[in-house]
Amino acid sequence: MKATKIISACAVLVALASCSNDHVISQPGAEDTPIHIQANVGAVTTKAASNIQESQFEENENIGIFLREHLKTGETSIKSYTLPLLGVTKKYSNDMMIDLSTTEYYPSNGHGVDCLAIYPMQFNTSNIDHNTTSFSVQDDQSSDVNYKASDLMFAYKKETKNADKLPIKLTFEHLLSKIIIVLKVDGSVDKSVLNEAYIELSGLKKTIGINVSDMTQVSGSASSESTDASVSLNTSILQDDATITFGKQTKSSSDDTQTEEAAVIIVPQNIPLNTEFIKVKLSNDNGSSFYTTYTYKVTDPAGLTFAEKTAYKYTITLKAGSISVQSVQITPWTHASDGSGDANLD
Fold first, then answer.
1. CA 15, CA 13: separation in Å to the nearest integer?
2. Given this model, what pLDDT does residue 58 score?
3. 286 alpha carbon, distance to own chain's centre
């Protein structure tokens, strides 16, 4: 009996050793580690009262994802990635993740990956990549879809190693300028007109040049240290005259003498002196025709300058025969000095 037990024990040990060896051979390596990406938005992008993508993307937004193996000087790439990959935002627990259209893995040599992400993914139906040289905002931003299509953002993260196998955490930054407007009435104007108010900005260019880093990498190529990637603006290219419309305003639920905040995105630029910049139009037939227009002209000899990555808030008060315009540049984009101006009734 003892002999039988010893033989059985030995058989078990042999079997365990065999399984152990098999396990070691099939142990997942770096090439079996999928790449996960987490997305955050670095600043508020309020649109009307709906707080679009205030601190997180909404779900099901398309983002262009560019990956490359991170190389140091003298290293050789062993893996190439398709560019760009389609990333779609999905919420898991409290985190907004970017699901890739295909599962991508880290290089088997233990290298990390660099990640450049661009939102929106497309401009004029073509994916934005290093060959893209310009970007345009939408003329009519009264819809959420067109507003978001105008909000050019990017994020970049350099990952030299992947030992922790944690998600790549991206924080997106806004590249263009945001204009926020609140419309008010004083005692000389009936507050009911706020239900008939439409706002537009004129005298603008809607297209600006952009420079997108080339993330192309060919497997087998040697490289120096991987350089940082980005999307930047080329302000020497400003073109396409446009009028940007906010659409019909929504009266505030807490103060019936003013509207909710409304916002549009414009490309950074200077608006010259005497430009009819802000127009408030009143309509009692849902915008088919307008019975009154209030106009604010630029009065500063230097014009109005709208800087990149910056938001400007205007509080406009309708008065009998004229309007008063006050502006303040607000955080979290950047903060600068206040400004003011007067407007006349056409």
1. 5
2. 87
3. 31
φ, ψ of residue 200 in degrees (nearest 5): -145, 155
Per-residue pLDDT band for 324 (boundaries 50, 70, 90) equals confident
Q: Please list the residues that pair with 183 across neighbouring strands.
A: 316
DSSP string, 26-74: T---GGG-B--EEEEESS----TTS-TTSSSPPTT-EEEEEEEE---TT
Judge if pTM exceeds 0.90. no
Spatial contact of 263 and 45, defined as CB atoms under 8 Å apart: yes
Distances (CA, A) of 222 to 31, 160, 162: 20, 16, 20
Q: What is the pLDDT of residue 13?
A: 35
Are 263 and 46 in contact, with CB atoms under 8 Å apart?
yes
| Residue closest to 308 by CA, chosen among 211, 198, 171 | 211
Residue 140 is given by DSSP the state B
Closest CA to 135 of 46, 45, 265: 265
232-247 core/surface letters (b: 16 or more CB in 10 A; e: else): ebeeeebeeebebbbb
- Decide: 207 and 135 in contact? Cβ < 8 Å: yes
Task: Give SS3 for 321.
Answer: coil
Q: What percent of the chain clears pLDDT 70, i.e. is strictly above it?
A: 81
Query: For all residues of the chain together, what is the average pLDDT?
Result: 83
> How many of the other CB atoms lie within 10 Å of CB of 345?
14
Q: Report pLDDT digits (tens) over 278-318.
A: 999 999 999 999 999 999 899 889 999 999 998 888 999 99
Positive or negative CA dihedral for 140, 142, 148, 152? positive
pLDDT tens per residue across span 99-112: 999 999 999 888 99
